[in-house]
Amino acid sequence: MDLSQYLQTGEENQAEPEQQLSKEEYAALKKQQREEVWGAVDAKAQEVFQNGESLKGFLNFMAQCKPQKAANLLLLYGQNPEIRQVKTFDGWKKEHKTLRPGVHGYTFIADQNYEKDGEIRQGYVITRAYDISQIRTKQPEPPEPKLIQVLLGALLKNSETKVSIGDNLPESVQAQYIPRQRTIFARNGMSEEVTFHAINREMACAAMDAHDGTYSRVSVSPQAFCAAYVVAQRYGVENSGFQLDKVCEMQEYGNKDPQELRAFIGNVKNAVYTISRHIDRNLGQPEQEFTADEFAVAEGTNGDKRGQETQAPEVPAEKAQKQKGGKAKKQPER
């Protein structure tokens, strides 16, 4: 028996010294805390773009980590590159999960609503979050690798952006998104992996098209290239052909304004999440199966002969159970 599970342990029960400060001291402390956190975010953004390998390390982290805002991805990556899924203490508590003894949380930027002048506004608070490895719960299993054919099918099925075979594409073009037609034209005959990468890159371009006439392929191509790398990494598709040094060069090896670098990462992140949601939705959608019809029409009788009952195709028990219960509702993303 683990007695600690009956006792209140963890950082959430420790009194915070800052609560004993005056109002002015508390405000000054919080301001200093915010400045330090955003300084760490900006420093990590610049560090990420130093070279292709440093950028690849961060993109690998983005691929393994559950969805987060760009600032939190940078902040968490700087604290522990092994993080996979974080929530605040209250977030885990809502799921009836508790912390392991002696764990220390990670600095985290959490959304927080507040009231001002009679209006509800959205702000943020610097708090602590805990990775799933720090939680008393069954740890997630690594996802089973999917065949590239299955992933391609999930990518192309019911896509919001139309994908067509481009019969007259220039030799150097694998695939390209045309904003006026809202269509991706892809070369036929490429390998399955290259086709997957090329279409994901163009899906990312489409995701960054606001359809207001401001779309520029030159502006979004580096982010789209990074997004295609992250999607491949997330689903275990071979991606050694991605060379990221050119991307870092375009970002002046991290010497650009940190806000620009954070915006770049935000665009990559948003495109990745858009594509991943589409793929995951299609991977989780069971194919239509043949099932025995309770109201099948019997064959007519002729004299004493009775129509023989037609045997329906056999359905695996687990698939039949899924159909009976219907598609499980997904929990909203946090």
From TrEMBL:
Which InterPro entries would you find in this protein's record? ArdC_N
Annotated GO molecular function terms are:
single-stranded DNA binding
* Pfam families reported for this sequence: ArdcN
Q: Can you say what this protein is called?
A: N-terminal domain-containing protein
Domain of life according to the entry = Bacteria
**Biased amino acid composition, Polar residues:** 1-20
| UniProt-annotated stretches for the region Disordered | 1-21, 284-334
N-terminal domain sequence ranges: 41-118
Basic residues bias: start-end ranges: 322-334
